[in-house]
Specification:
- By secondary structure, the protein is an alpha+beta fold.
- It contains six helices and eleven strands.
- The protein is elongated and about 90 Å long.
């Protein structure tokens, strides 16, 4: 019996292979259209969430840049001869989740910053917490006192809040950090303190900043004896619109 070899299969001349290629290209176009629709929806959502923010020249330029990136990605997809649709959908889902997470962080950045400041304030009581009311809040320290981290003449100084002090009182060590030479000052101010009579030398601070609060030309004095902490007295506190202690928190109002 003679063996008849099988006839090799050929694509019909009417373009069966071309039909399959067309179907593949159609799927690619669907993915590109889905990406375009997703970016457009994101753009519209951001416009509603933050009115006016997307209309700025920088935001418009960023959106155009993302469209250019989309066009580049789309051209790569269309130029590919093979496309794993399942893998492409999975990758798109991953990128969509990343974008959604970034958008969520951006949308709630104010709330997240407030929560972060509150946590830091609990861990470090001398660090200010900005409240929605505009007040600065400080937690009471473990020793029952309030401490405030300030910036004096551009340098960080930690103060003990003392409403009994008529002005800011700098320790000799902090005075030296600010550029004063304690040995050259005239100590002609007499103070009655808990430890007895104290002497101080009058100086003027160029600026004192606590959080968003900043005052210029603040009266102060340099103590003639060593101190564990400089004192934040009334020459600063009196410039505030108000301050008060509620529970274990001190509130400063600009």
């Amino acid at each position: 019996m003679s063996h008849i070899p099988p006839t090799p299969r050929r694509d019909p001349p009417d373009g069966g292979g071309a039909w399959r290629g067309g179907r593949s290209r159609g799927r690619r176009w669907l993915i590109v259209v889905a990406i375009a629709i997703g970016l457009t929806g994101l753009f519209i959502w951001l416009s509603g969430r933050h009115p006016g923010a997307i209309d700025t020249p920088g935001a418009t330029a960023d959106f155009i840049r993302w469209l250019a990136i989309l066009a580049l990605v789309a051209s790569g997809i269309l130029a590919s001869r093979t496309l794993n649709l399942g893998k492409a959908v999975r990758d798109l889902a991953i990128w969509a989740a990343v974008v959604a997470g970034l958008v969520a962080v951006y949308g709630f950045r104010g709330e997240l910053m407030m929560v972060g400041n509150r946590i830091l304030g609990e861990l470090e009581p001398s660090r200010s917490q900005m409240l929605a009311s505009g007040e600065l809040a400080f937690r009471r320290g473990a020793d029952g006192h309030f401490y405030i981290d300030a910036e004096v003449n551009g340098r960080p100084i930690r103060f003990l809040v003392d409403t009994g002090a008529s002005e800011i009182v700098l320790s000799p060590a902090d005075a030296r950090r600010l550029g004063f030479a304690p040995s050259t000052l005239t100590y002609d101010r007499i103070y009655q303190t808990a430890n007895g009579i104290g002497r101080g030398a009058a100086v003027t601070l160029q600026s004192v900043a606590v959080g968003s609060i900043r005052f210029h030309g603040v009266a102060a004095s340099v103590n003639d004896a060593a101190m564990s902490e400089s004192l934040l007295g009334m020459s600063f506190l009196d410039r505030l619109s108000g301050y008060e202690v509620r529970g274990d928190s001190l509130f400063l109002r600009p």
